[in-house]
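Regression test case RT-17, inverse folding.

Input:
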């Protein structure tokens, strides 16, 4: 029962928002003892120690009852021979030092229950606690787990958003048209699941009962609720229906959810590197990515995403264990085994079995299901109903699947024929349905050609290869309507673009499945990305200089063009250097902003409200070096202008000294001004609305709006900061560096160029939307890798069923389709451009 006591104490501590060190200070019990109790390593459950912890945690009567019940279950342990209900709370004041091992007897000065009459027999045991409260609950009321109203509201809002999202996704995948394919399962092999006693969370010596895990797709949530540990592994081969099962599980679980119950959230495991990020932090990062409004602060000071995870209000549905990189699966399993978190895990059987063999232990406390193949009867029921009656020459309709099903049913091999084995998974049935049931003129009888399709692999490759051309060729007159415009999609070009995206996913850190719009540009070489930064920022600063010179009409046109070009080149090199430094330290993949900008005075609900000093210092320190480099570039451009236009020699000692002084002074002016402006701009930040970023298109739109508002704020603020900061810094350094001159017209001109050019350069070079615009909307379309209307193309591919949405990112309909498209793209590239394809491409 040590683990049950530890789980309960840990839950009470997290509910109180205390760390182990804070609990030590409040209770007087050492951290080492608290840690041993929470991890179940202590077999000596001293009643006095538990009393002190219960008092420090302000445990209520129901919590004390549960603690007493847990202690009662440990009657065989030597330290507790006859447990009794815990006494009333201790006084608020506790001794400054309490021995690590607190005696079992409570001091006489502490009020407690009246001593039992020795003639009345043993003290009565506390009332039994229902079985469902002896484990982490997965639905229904949570066991005496009070949470703040704001956190409860956040969990409820998250549940509503997830329900809307997955209902829409289930409809988009046409799961119920004409009816859901039957997804059945059997118990997973005993070698891949934990002992029945552990799954049922039974104490030592207790006899386990046979678990009934039978059911179908419509009862998967009910089956899960029979598992007392709250941990389930779903195994199945590729395309067997694991994704359909998880979606149905989430929707059914949300339907039965109590207001304070856990919210099931699907997380794609392919993006998790257990050696680089802890499970808790990864869950929080994905929650923030897919639900940016959870960056709001909870009552305890952390983000709502972190508070929901820490309060045990999120039920992780970890989809695709097999998609974790091969060398990381055993580490991932060990990490999951180090937690007691209720969860659902899906995987292909082979990859999960290899991880179990390497770690020599399955997922602890987890029951297991293994999805089974569809039968010929299932095909006979389903496929004919997908082929809607189509008039042929005005006379009746044609049942396109009848010859195929008749041959499979009457054939000698029956279910053992290659075609029957291929059509035993929902994935292949959906592909076959798309190619033959929903396409005029499609004849599935060609699948019976054993010379053309001698084995399962050839049949599967045929279905995978025909899916994309079919959905883009289907109905010749069909047009894609996006943004009020109608567009044809050429099947070959669409397949080429999709193949490039699939190839891009294979070239990330490892074979990724999440197609994030802000990471598409990472498919280019680092040198190409740096060149794009240099060109974009150079153009921004050059045009800013020319615009300022237009306002200052007496300025000579030739000198203006020369100064703009030289200043732009220097700024481009400066921004390129900063970008290269960020890339060197692994921070070049700019994430989308999780805030929006309100052009008003800061107030309640702003991002800086609770921690203004820390936020300001962080922003100031991050921006200061970049601004300094920009100032150095500006000084270099002015020296270059004097040489080219006025003939001032650069090698002159006085010119060199003056240029170095200008570099320092302008570097400090630009750096301090930019740091101050970006630090203060945090006052205008506020979390995104709940529904503002529920889709990739929504997140892109919100980031575009945020960047536009940032530019509107940055231009005047940077201009003023540079202009006024110039007077302050030159006054401070006056005499120390010689005579420094900073006149108002020059200050406004330099400030205007720095404000307008610097703000636009920052937007295009250091924001997720800016990198998307430069690389994915300009550079990649120029090279033919992507279409010019990339957003419309991705949304169109989603509506056609080639892509699916998982939160803020797209994914290909299935990992096998992604691999097929990537392989086809590479083969095409190697055939027509072998010299351009290689590891560096």
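Golden output:
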């Amino acid at each position: 029962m040590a683990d049950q006591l530890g789980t309960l104490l840990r839950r009470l501590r997290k509910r109180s928002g205390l760390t182990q060190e804070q609990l030590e200070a409040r209770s007087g019990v050492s951290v080492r003892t608290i840690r041993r109790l929470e991890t179940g390593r202590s077999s000596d459950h001293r009643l006095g120690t538990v009393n002190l912890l219960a008092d420090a945690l302000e445990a209520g009567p129901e919590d004390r009852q549960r603690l007493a019940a847990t202690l009662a279950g440990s009657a065989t342990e030597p330290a507790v021979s006859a447990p009794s209900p815990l006494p009333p709370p201790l006084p608020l004041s506790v001794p400054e030092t309490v021995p690590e091992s607190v005696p079992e007897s409570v001091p006489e000065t502490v009020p407690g229950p009246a001593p039992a009459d020795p003639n009345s027999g043993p003290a009565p045991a506390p009332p039994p606690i229902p079985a469902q409260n002896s484990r982490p609950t997965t639905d229904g009321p949570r066991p005496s787990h009070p949470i703040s109203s704001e956190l409860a509201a956040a969990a409820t809002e998250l549940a509503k958003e997830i329900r809307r999202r997955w209902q829409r996704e289930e409809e988009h995948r046409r799961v119920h048209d004409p009816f859901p394919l039957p997804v059945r399962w059997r118990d997973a092999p005993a070698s891949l699941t934990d002992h029945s006693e552990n799954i049922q969370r039974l104490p030592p010596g207790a006899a386990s009962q046979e678990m009934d895990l039978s059911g179908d797709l419509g009862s998967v949530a009910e089956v899960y609720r029979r598992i007392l540990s709250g941990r389930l592994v779903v195994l199945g081969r590729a395309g067997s229906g694991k994704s359909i099962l998880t979606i149905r599980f989430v929707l059914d679980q949300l339907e039965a959810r109590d207001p304070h119950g856990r919210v099931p959230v699907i997380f794609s495991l392919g993006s998790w590197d257990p050696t680089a990020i802890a499970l808790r932090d990864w869950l929080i990062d994905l929650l923030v990515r897919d639900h940016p409004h959870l960056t709001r602060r909870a009552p305890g000071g952390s983000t709502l995403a972190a508070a929901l995870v820490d309060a045990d209000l999120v039920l992780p549905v970890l989809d695709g264990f097999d998609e974790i990189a091969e060398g990381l699966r055993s580490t991932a399993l060990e990490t999951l085994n180090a937690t007691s978190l209720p969860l659902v895990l899906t995987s292909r059987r082979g990859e999960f079995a290899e991880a179990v063999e390497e770690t020599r232990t399955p997922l602890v406390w987890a029951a297991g299901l293994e999805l089974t193949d569809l039968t010929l009867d299932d095909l006979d029921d389903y496929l004919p109903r997908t082929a809607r009656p189509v008039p042929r020459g005005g006379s009746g309709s044609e049942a396109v699947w009848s010859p195929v099903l008749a041959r499979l049913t009457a054939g000698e091999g029956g279910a053992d024929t290659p075609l029957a084995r291929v059509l035993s998974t929902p994935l292949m049935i959906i592909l076959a349905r798309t190619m033959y049931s929903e396409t005029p003129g499609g004849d599935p009888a060609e699948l019976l050609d054993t010379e053309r399709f001698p084995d399962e692999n050839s049949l599967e490759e045929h279905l995978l290869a025909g899916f994309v051309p079919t959905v883009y060729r289907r109905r010749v007159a069909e047009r894609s309507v996006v943004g009020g415009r109608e567009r044809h999609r050429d099947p070959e070009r669409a397949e080429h673009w999709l193949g490039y995206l699939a190839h891009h996913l294979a070239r990330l850190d490892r074979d990724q499945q999440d197609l994030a719009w802000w990471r598409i540009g990472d498919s280019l070489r680092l040198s190409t990305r740096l060149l794009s930064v240099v060109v974009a920022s150079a153009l921004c600063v050059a045009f800013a200089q020319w615009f300022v010179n237009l306002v200052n009409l007496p300025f000579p046109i030739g000198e203006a063009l020369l100064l703009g070009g030289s200043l732009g080149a220097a700024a481009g090199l400066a921004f390129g250097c900063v970008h290269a430094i960020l890339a060197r330290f692994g921070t070049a993949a700019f994430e989308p902003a999780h805030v929006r900008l309100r052009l008003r005075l800061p107030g309640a609900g702003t991002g800086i409200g609770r921690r203004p000093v820390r936020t300001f210092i962080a922003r100031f320190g991050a921006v200061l070096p970049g601004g300094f480099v920009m100032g150095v570039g500006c000084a270099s451009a002015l020296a270059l202008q004097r040489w080219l236009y006025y003939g001032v020699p650069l090698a002159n000692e006085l010119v060199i000294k003056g240029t170095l002084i200008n570099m320092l002074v302008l570097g400090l002016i630009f750096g301090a001004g930019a740091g101050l402006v970006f630090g203060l701009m945090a006052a205008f930040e506020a979390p995104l609305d709940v529904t503002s970023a529920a889709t990739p298109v929504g997140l892109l739109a919100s980031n575009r709006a945020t960047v536009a508002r940032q530019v509107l704020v940055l231009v005047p603020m940077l201009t003023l900061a540079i202009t006024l900061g110039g007077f302050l810094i030159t006054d401070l350094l006056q005499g120390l560096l010689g005579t420094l001159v900073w006149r108002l017209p020059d200050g406004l001109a330099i400030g205007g160029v720095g404000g307008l050019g610097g703000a636009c350069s920052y937007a295009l070079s250091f924001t997720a939307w800016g990198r998307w615009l430069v690389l994915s909307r300009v550079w990649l379309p120029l090279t033919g890798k992507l279409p010019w209307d990339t957003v419309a193309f991705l949304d169109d591919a989603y509506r056609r069923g080639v892509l699916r949405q998982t939160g803020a990112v797209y994914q290909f309909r299935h990992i096998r389709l992604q691999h097929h498209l990537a392989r086809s793209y590479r083969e095409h590239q190697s055939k027509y451009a072998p010299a351009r394809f290689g590891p560096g491409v």
